[in-house]
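Troubleshooting log. The previous structure file for this entry was overwritten by mistake, so regenerating from the original sequence record. Sequence copied from the archived sheet and checked twice against the printout by T.R.
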Amino acid sequence: RALIPDANQVFCPDVLMKEVLQHTHYQPDSWMNAAHLPHVRQQFSQMFVFKGVYLAEELLSPLLTPFILYFNIRLKALDFVDFLRNYTVHVVGVGDVCSFSQMDIKRHGNPDWMSFGMTSGTQGEQANHGKTEL
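Regenerated output below.
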């Protein structure tokens, strides 16, 4: 009976959106007084997925993930191995870590963000867009 709507109830999306706002405390500015528009409904449905859909995704993901990994990632496996071989360093007391995690500006720094000669890394070793310096 909870899923059967009342015959005398008037559909007003803005009122329903205000009720949702009371519980979630989140409403983008583009949703204000626009709950009846299709793009708001689409954004809302992406953000707040039905429990049935969420449950189905959770139950199917352990079955589908190995196939996705096997068929899509298999082609990039050598690139992954090369990255791990080239950018893994040993830190005493910690073990093997990615060299980018050490924030080594001398090795991974971008020369556009630093003075001349401050970096010794090659173009392939540099982080993109000054990510190490930020």
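Residues 73 and 80 are 9 Å apart (CA to CA). Archived copy saved in two places this time.
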